[in-house]
Amino acid sequence: MTETVLVTGGTGYVGGWAIVALLGRGYDVRTTVRAASKEQSVREAMGERVGFAIADLMKDDGWDAAMAGVDYVLHVASPLGDQSAKDPDALIVPARDGALRVLRAATRAGVKRVVMTSAANAASPESYTAEGVTDETLWTVDSSSLPAYRRSKTLAEKAVWDFMAGYDGPTELTTVLPGAVFGPILTAHNVGTTQIIQRMLMGKMPGTPKIGLEVVDVRDLVELHLRAMVAPEAAGQRFLGTGEFVWMREIAAALKDALGPQAAKVPTRQLPNFMVRLAAITDPSLRAITISLGRRNRHTTAKAERVLGWKARPAAQTVVECAESLIAHGVVPEVAS
């Protein structure tokens, strides 16, 4: 019998690629959408083989029906909440409660395993000035001084592991902690986290801040989820799914080298930290990144490589193929040669 996988958030960037990979391997796939009106956009990208369930991470309704007959769950979605709100609970509560809602429904249904997408910043030193390399044994210490998004990912993951500590049943849990997710897009309607590359290509950044990213290709991240879903030894484990550490100026250089005229607007100068901090006073989108300026702490994926045989492709390849995809889909205007 064909196994069924429920993917939460099929309209999302990572969720969409997860559906593509699962269908390619012969699984029956069902995905959750908040409203029936969202189904068409998924069908246009994925075809008619995808099943749907109406379920909202902010509500209890629909989750038991969504889990009926499901063998595995990839909990990729996370409610964004109000990222402009001053109250951090606007992000923390939806992420934590949504994750618990999914896990409780999965355990009631007796699914084999839930693989939840967390974030590498849930396994990072509290100090943003820390150097060195960390692994999955480290848990981020929650602090009001941390950005609300980082706190939301940490507290949501802790909540599901705390739930499993008191659970005595057949369902298993695994979490995957990615870095900065780039790579090709599936549709022009959902660019996801590739907006950073989009902004660089369109010249919407005056320069590159001194920020380092651990770039992981969305296709590699999905592969890690699928391996974690079925490998017996992955049960009850956390897996970092970060990629190569690169500074944003190195991303800009890779785009310039590979794309030529198509990358004419990509900024080449690195912005001094004080300029970024000054700009953040009036630009809310910059406030969350100022704490990361100059940070060099990295994560190791040795566990995923050893246990699951996983390996991320080079960062330059990922960002270049991301840019080429954005151009091909018309998200970034093509430059006439």
TrEMBL record:
Top-level division of the source organism's lineage: Bacteria
Signal sequence segment: none
Keywords for the protein's UniProt record, in alphabetical order: Oxidoreductase
GO-annotated molecular function: oxidoreductase activity, acting on the CH-OH group of donors, NAD or NADP as acceptor
Keyword Cell inner membrane belongs to the record: no
All residue ranges annotated as the NAD-dependent epimerase/dehydratase domain in the record: 5-235
Keyword Oxidoreductase belongs to the record: yes
Pfam families: Epimerase (PF01370)
Family, similarity comment: Belongs to the NAD(P)-dependent epimerase/dehydratase family. Dihydroflavonol-4-reductase subfamily.
PANTHER family: NAD DEPENDENT EPIMERASE/DEHYDRATASE, STEROL-4-ALPHA-CARBOXYLATE 3-DEHYDROGENASE, DECARBOXYLATING
Protein name (Swiss-Prot/TrEMBL): NAD-dependent epimerase/dehydratase family protein
Organism whose genome encodes this protein: Kribbella capetownensis
Source lineage: Bacteria, Bacillati, Actinomycetota, Actinomycetes, Propionibacteriales
